[in-house]
Amino acid sequence: MGRPHLLDQLIQGEYPSLRGDADVRALEAVPFARRIAAPSTYEAMRRSAALNPAAPAVHFLRTGEAGETPLTLSYAQFMGGVTRAANLFTDLGVGPRDVVSFLLPLIPQALFTLFGAEASGVANPVNPLLEPYQIAEILHAAGTQVLVALAPMPGSDIWDKVNKVRGELPNLKALVQVGGPAQDQDGVISFDGRIGKYPADRLTSGRQIAPEDVAAYFHTGGTTGTPKLVRHTHANQVYEAWAVNLILKARPGDALLMGLPLFHVGGALSQCLCTFSAGGAVVLLTPSGWRNPVAVRNVWRLVERYRAFGLSSVPTVLAA
Description:
Blueprint: H1 21-28, H2 32-35, H3 41-51, E1 56-61, E2 71-74, H4 75-91, E3 99-103, H5 108-120, E4 122-125, H6 132-142, E5 144-150, H7 158-165, E6 174-178, E7 188-190, H8 191-194, E8 214-219, E9 229-233, H9 234-248, E10 255-258, H10 265-277, E11 281-285, H11 293-297, H12 299-306, E12 310-311, H13 315-319
Parallel strand pairs: 1-11, 3-4, 3-5, 5-6, 6-7, 10-11, 10-12
Antiparallel strand pairs: 1-2, 8-9
Helix pairs in contact: 3-4, 4-5, 6-7, 9-10
Protein backbone atom coordinates (compact mmCIF):
# COMPACT_ATOMS: atom_id res chain seq x y z
CA MET A 1 0.00 0.00 0.00
CA GLY A 2 1.35 3.43 -0.94
CA ARG A 3 1.57 6.44 1.32
CA PRO A 4 -1.90 7.96 1.84
CA HIS A 5 -0.63 11.42 2.77
CA LEU A 6 1.53 12.60 -0.10
CA LEU A 7 2.92 15.60 1.81
CA ASP A 8 3.97 13.63 4.89
CA GLN A 9 7.05 11.51 4.34
CA LEU A 10 6.55 9.47 7.53
CA ILE A 11 2.89 8.41 7.39
CA GLN A 12 2.80 4.96 5.84
CA GLY A 13 -0.20 2.81 4.96
CA GLU A 14 -2.86 4.52 7.07
CA TYR A 15 -3.51 7.96 8.49
CA PRO A 16 -2.91 8.29 12.25
CA SER A 17 -6.17 8.22 14.19
CA LEU A 18 -5.35 11.25 16.40
CA ARG A 19 -8.11 10.14 18.78
CA GLY A 20 -6.30 11.05 21.97
CA ASP A 21 -3.41 12.92 23.55
CA ALA A 22 -1.01 10.03 23.05
CA ASP A 23 -1.69 9.93 19.30
CA VAL A 24 -1.21 13.69 19.00
CA ARG A 25 2.02 13.64 21.01
CA ALA A 26 3.38 10.80 18.87
CA LEU A 27 2.72 12.83 15.72
CA GLU A 28 4.22 15.98 17.23
CA ALA A 29 7.35 14.12 18.35
CA VAL A 30 8.73 14.49 14.82
CA PRO A 31 9.04 18.16 13.72
CA PHE A 32 6.98 19.30 10.75
CA ALA A 33 10.14 20.27 8.86
CA ARG A 34 11.26 16.62 8.88
CA ARG A 35 7.89 15.36 7.77
CA ILE A 36 7.05 17.68 4.91
CA ALA A 37 7.81 16.49 1.39
CA ALA A 38 7.40 19.75 -0.54
CA PRO A 39 8.85 23.25 0.02
CA SER A 40 6.26 25.04 -2.12
CA THR A 41 2.73 24.84 -3.42
CA TYR A 42 4.07 24.16 -6.92
CA GLU A 43 6.12 21.22 -5.72
CA ALA A 44 3.24 19.88 -3.61
CA MET A 45 1.00 19.65 -6.67
CA ARG A 46 3.78 18.49 -8.96
CA ARG A 47 4.30 15.44 -6.73
CA SER A 48 0.66 14.47 -7.19
CA ALA A 49 0.97 14.87 -10.95
CA ALA A 50 4.07 12.70 -11.00
CA LEU A 51 2.24 9.95 -9.08
CA ASN A 52 -0.46 9.54 -11.74
CA PRO A 53 -0.35 12.04 -14.63
CA ALA A 54 -3.46 10.57 -16.26
CA ALA A 55 -5.65 10.84 -13.15
CA PRO A 56 -8.34 13.55 -13.17
CA ALA A 57 -7.40 16.74 -11.33
CA VAL A 58 -10.30 19.02 -12.31
CA HIS A 59 -13.89 18.44 -13.42
CA PHE A 60 -15.37 21.77 -14.52
CA LEU A 61 -19.16 22.04 -14.69
CA ARG A 62 -20.48 24.94 -16.75
CA THR A 63 -24.16 24.71 -15.76
CA GLY A 64 -24.36 22.60 -12.59
CA GLU A 65 -26.76 20.08 -14.10
CA ALA A 66 -26.21 16.62 -12.66
CA GLY A 67 -25.87 14.92 -16.03
CA GLU A 68 -23.79 17.44 -17.95
CA THR A 69 -20.50 16.42 -19.51
CA PRO A 70 -17.73 18.25 -17.63
CA LEU A 71 -14.48 19.60 -18.93
CA THR A 72 -12.04 17.20 -17.29
CA LEU A 73 -8.33 17.97 -16.92
CA SER A 74 -5.85 15.27 -16.05
CA TYR A 75 -3.02 16.02 -13.64
CA ALA A 76 -0.66 16.31 -16.61
CA GLN A 77 -2.97 18.89 -18.22
CA PHE A 78 -3.62 20.74 -14.96
CA MET A 79 0.05 21.05 -14.02
CA GLY A 80 0.84 21.92 -17.62
CA GLY A 81 -1.61 24.82 -17.37
CA VAL A 82 -0.14 26.00 -14.06
CA THR A 83 3.40 25.79 -15.44
CA ARG A 84 2.52 27.56 -18.68
CA ALA A 85 0.79 30.35 -16.77
CA ALA A 86 3.86 30.75 -14.57
CA ASN A 87 6.04 30.97 -17.66
CA LEU A 88 3.70 33.52 -19.25
CA PHE A 89 3.96 35.71 -16.15
CA THR A 90 7.74 35.32 -16.10
CA ASP A 91 7.81 36.45 -19.74
CA LEU A 92 5.80 39.53 -18.71
CA GLY A 93 8.53 40.47 -16.23
CA VAL A 94 7.22 38.85 -13.06
CA GLY A 95 9.88 37.82 -10.55
CA PRO A 96 9.67 36.22 -7.08
CA ARG A 97 8.55 39.47 -5.39
CA ASP A 98 6.30 40.79 -8.16
CA VAL A 99 2.53 40.61 -7.82
CA VAL A 100 0.00 39.07 -10.21
CA SER A 101 -3.51 40.17 -9.23
CA PHE A 102 -6.61 38.62 -10.76
CA LEU A 103 -10.37 39.04 -10.94
CA LEU A 104 -11.83 35.80 -12.27
CA PRO A 105 -14.80 33.52 -11.65
CA LEU A 106 -14.43 29.85 -10.73
CA ILE A 107 -12.97 28.55 -13.99
CA PRO A 108 -9.90 26.41 -14.79
CA GLN A 109 -7.93 29.48 -15.96
CA ALA A 110 -8.35 30.92 -12.46
CA LEU A 111 -6.60 27.86 -11.01
CA PHE A 112 -3.80 28.21 -13.56
CA THR A 113 -3.48 31.89 -12.67
CA LEU A 114 -3.51 31.40 -8.90
CA PHE A 115 -0.90 28.68 -8.72
CA GLY A 116 1.06 29.90 -11.75
CA ALA A 117 1.38 33.30 -10.09
CA GLU A 118 2.63 31.64 -6.91
CA ALA A 119 5.24 29.74 -8.93
CA SER A 120 6.49 32.84 -10.73
CA GLY A 121 5.87 35.58 -8.17
CA VAL A 122 3.13 36.50 -5.69
CA ALA A 123 -0.57 35.82 -6.33
CA ASN A 124 -3.22 38.33 -5.29
CA PRO A 125 -6.75 37.00 -5.89
CA VAL A 126 -9.36 39.76 -5.59
CA ASN A 127 -13.12 39.58 -5.06
CA PRO A 128 -14.65 40.86 -8.33
CA LEU A 129 -17.92 41.63 -6.52
CA LEU A 130 -16.28 44.50 -4.62
CA GLU A 131 -16.85 48.08 -5.69
CA PRO A 132 -14.26 49.57 -8.07
CA TYR A 133 -12.79 51.86 -5.38
CA GLN A 134 -12.23 48.85 -3.09
CA ILE A 135 -10.65 46.86 -5.91
CA ALA A 136 -8.38 49.79 -6.74
CA GLU A 137 -7.25 50.09 -3.12
CA ILE A 138 -6.37 46.39 -2.94
CA LEU A 139 -4.55 46.36 -6.29
CA HIS A 140 -2.64 49.51 -5.38
CA ALA A 141 -1.68 48.23 -1.91
CA ALA A 142 -0.41 44.99 -3.43
CA GLY A 143 1.77 46.85 -5.93
CA THR A 144 0.15 44.96 -8.82
CA GLN A 145 2.46 44.47 -11.82
CA VAL A 146 0.24 42.12 -13.84
CA LEU A 147 -3.55 42.14 -13.74
CA VAL A 148 -5.53 39.17 -15.08
CA ALA A 149 -9.28 39.59 -15.57
CA LEU A 150 -12.29 38.10 -17.32
CA ALA A 151 -13.11 39.51 -20.76
CA PRO A 152 -16.47 41.23 -21.32
CA MET A 153 -19.16 38.58 -20.85
CA PRO A 154 -22.96 38.65 -20.54
CA GLY A 155 -23.85 39.00 -16.89
CA SER A 156 -20.35 40.05 -15.81
CA ASP A 157 -19.13 43.56 -15.03
CA ILE A 158 -15.55 42.54 -14.26
CA TRP A 159 -14.04 44.16 -17.36
CA ASP A 160 -15.99 47.36 -16.74
CA LYS A 161 -14.44 47.53 -13.27
CA VAL A 162 -10.97 46.86 -14.69
CA ASN A 163 -11.34 49.80 -17.06
CA LYS A 164 -12.30 52.02 -14.12
CA VAL A 165 -9.27 51.10 -11.99
CA ARG A 166 -6.43 50.35 -14.42
CA GLY A 167 -5.33 54.00 -14.56
CA GLU A 168 -4.80 54.02 -10.80
CA LEU A 169 -2.10 51.31 -10.84
CA PRO A 170 1.32 52.97 -11.23
CA ASN A 171 3.24 49.67 -11.19
CA LEU A 172 1.12 47.91 -13.81
CA LYS A 173 3.25 46.27 -16.52
CA ALA A 174 0.65 44.14 -18.28
CA LEU A 175 -3.11 43.65 -18.53
CA VAL A 176 -4.16 40.08 -19.36
CA GLN A 177 -7.63 39.04 -20.50
CA VAL A 178 -9.17 35.58 -20.05
CA GLY A 179 -11.90 34.40 -22.42
CA GLY A 180 -11.61 37.17 -24.98
CA PRO A 181 -10.03 37.26 -28.46
CA ALA A 182 -7.27 34.75 -29.13
CA GLN A 183 -4.93 37.57 -30.16
CA ASP A 184 -3.47 40.48 -28.21
CA GLN A 185 -5.43 43.66 -28.93
CA ASP A 186 -5.01 47.31 -27.95
CA GLY A 187 -2.26 46.53 -25.46
CA VAL A 188 -4.30 43.79 -23.76
CA ILE A 189 -2.68 40.35 -23.69
CA SER A 190 -4.76 37.27 -24.51
CA PHE A 191 -4.29 34.66 -21.77
CA ASP A 192 -5.88 31.89 -23.85
CA GLY A 193 -4.02 32.89 -27.00
CA ARG A 194 -0.61 33.08 -25.36
CA ILE A 195 -0.51 30.34 -22.76
CA GLY A 196 -0.06 27.47 -25.20
CA LYS A 197 3.19 28.97 -26.48
CA TYR A 198 5.07 28.26 -23.25
CA PRO A 199 6.66 25.02 -21.99
CA ALA A 200 4.45 22.84 -19.81
CA ASP A 201 7.21 20.70 -18.30
CA ARG A 202 9.44 23.24 -16.51
CA LEU A 203 9.61 26.73 -15.07
CA THR A 204 11.57 28.78 -17.59
CA SER A 205 12.71 31.07 -14.77
CA GLY A 206 14.65 28.21 -13.21
CA ARG A 207 13.28 29.39 -9.88
CA GLN A 208 13.90 27.26 -6.79
CA ILE A 209 11.02 28.27 -4.53
CA ALA A 210 11.94 28.44 -0.85
CA PRO A 211 9.43 27.76 1.96
CA GLU A 212 9.85 31.29 3.30
CA ASP A 213 9.12 32.93 -0.07
CA VAL A 214 5.86 34.88 -0.18
CA ALA A 215 3.27 32.91 -2.17
CA ALA A 216 0.22 35.17 -2.04
CA TYR A 217 -1.63 38.14 -0.63
CA PHE A 218 -5.20 37.36 0.39
CA HIS A 219 -7.45 40.23 1.37
CA THR A 220 -9.69 40.14 4.42
CA GLY A 221 -13.43 40.55 4.03
CA GLY A 222 -13.55 44.25 4.88
CA THR A 223 -16.53 43.83 7.19
CA THR A 224 -15.22 46.44 9.62
CA GLY A 225 -13.36 48.65 7.17
CA THR A 226 -11.14 48.58 4.09
CA PRO A 227 -9.94 45.02 3.32
CA LYS A 228 -6.40 44.32 4.54
CA LEU A 229 -3.79 42.26 2.71
CA VAL A 230 -2.45 39.19 4.49
CA ARG A 231 0.88 37.66 3.43
CA HIS A 232 1.12 33.90 2.96
CA THR A 233 4.44 32.13 2.53
CA HIS A 234 4.71 28.86 0.65
CA ALA A 235 5.38 27.20 4.00
CA ASN A 236 2.11 28.65 5.36
CA GLN A 237 0.06 27.23 2.53
CA VAL A 238 1.78 23.85 2.38
CA TYR A 239 1.30 23.52 6.14
CA GLU A 240 -2.43 24.14 5.76
CA ALA A 241 -2.69 21.48 3.07
CA TRP A 242 -0.77 19.04 5.29
CA ALA A 243 -2.86 19.76 8.39
CA VAL A 244 -6.27 19.75 6.70
CA ASN A 245 -5.50 16.46 4.99
CA LEU A 246 -4.77 14.96 8.42
CA ILE A 247 -8.38 15.83 9.27
CA LEU A 248 -10.06 14.96 5.96
CA LYS A 249 -7.86 11.90 5.37
CA ALA A 250 -7.96 12.53 1.63
CA ARG A 251 -6.40 9.95 -0.68
CA PRO A 252 -5.35 9.90 -4.33
CA GLY A 253 -8.41 9.60 -6.54
CA ASP A 254 -10.87 11.12 -4.06
CA ALA A 255 -13.15 13.90 -5.36
CA LEU A 256 -14.25 17.08 -3.60
CA LEU A 257 -17.07 19.40 -4.69
CA MET A 258 -15.80 22.99 -4.73
CA GLY A 259 -18.06 26.01 -4.93
CA LEU A 260 -16.17 28.62 -2.92
CA PRO A 261 -14.36 31.46 -4.74
CA LEU A 262 -10.59 31.45 -5.13
CA PHE A 263 -10.20 34.85 -3.45
CA HIS A 264 -11.32 33.00 -0.29
CA VAL A 265 -8.71 30.94 1.56
CA GLY A 266 -11.33 28.24 2.08
CA GLY A 267 -11.70 27.74 -1.65
CA ALA A 268 -8.12 28.32 -2.72
CA LEU A 269 -6.32 26.46 0.06
CA SER A 270 -8.52 24.38 2.37
CA GLN A 271 -10.25 22.85 -0.65
CA CYS A 272 -8.19 23.22 -3.86
CA LEU A 273 -4.59 23.09 -2.67
CA CYS A 274 -5.38 20.39 -0.12
CA THR A 275 -7.10 18.23 -2.73
CA PHE A 276 -4.40 18.75 -5.36
CA SER A 277 -1.64 17.97 -2.87
CA ALA A 278 -3.46 14.72 -2.01
CA GLY A 279 -3.78 13.59 -5.63
CA GLY A 280 -7.55 14.07 -5.64
CA ALA A 281 -9.95 15.73 -8.08
CA VAL A 282 -11.70 19.07 -7.60
CA VAL A 283 -15.20 19.39 -9.06
CA LEU A 284 -15.71 23.08 -9.89
CA LEU A 285 -19.40 23.84 -9.47
CA THR A 286 -19.76 26.31 -12.38
CA PRO A 287 -18.13 29.76 -12.69
CA SER A 288 -20.53 31.11 -10.04
CA GLY A 289 -19.91 28.31 -7.55
CA TRP A 290 -22.52 28.16 -4.83
CA ARG A 291 -24.17 31.32 -6.19
CA ASN A 292 -25.56 29.15 -8.98
CA PRO A 293 -28.98 27.82 -7.86
CA VAL A 294 -28.73 24.93 -10.33
CA ALA A 295 -25.60 23.61 -8.58
CA VAL A 296 -27.27 23.96 -5.18
CA ARG A 297 -30.38 22.12 -6.37
CA ASN A 298 -28.30 19.24 -7.77
CA VAL A 299 -25.69 18.97 -5.04
CA TRP A 300 -26.62 15.49 -3.80
CA ARG A 301 -26.89 14.15 -7.34
CA LEU A 302 -23.39 15.49 -7.98
CA VAL A 303 -22.10 13.94 -4.76
CA GLU A 304 -23.48 10.60 -5.93
CA ARG A 305 -22.12 10.99 -9.45
CA TYR A 306 -18.57 11.88 -8.43
CA ARG A 307 -18.54 9.76 -5.26
CA ALA A 308 -17.32 12.85 -3.44
CA PHE A 309 -15.66 12.33 -0.07
CA GLY A 310 -16.45 15.92 0.88
CA LEU A 311 -17.81 19.25 -0.27
CA SER A 312 -16.92 22.83 0.58
CA SER A 313 -19.72 25.15 1.57
CA VAL A 314 -21.00 27.62 4.13
CA PRO A 315 -24.04 27.43 6.43
CA THR A 316 -26.33 29.30 4.03
CA VAL A 317 -25.53 26.78 1.28
CA LEU A 318 -26.21 23.84 3.58
CA ALA A 319 -29.49 25.43 4.62
CA ALA A 320 -30.48 25.81 0.96
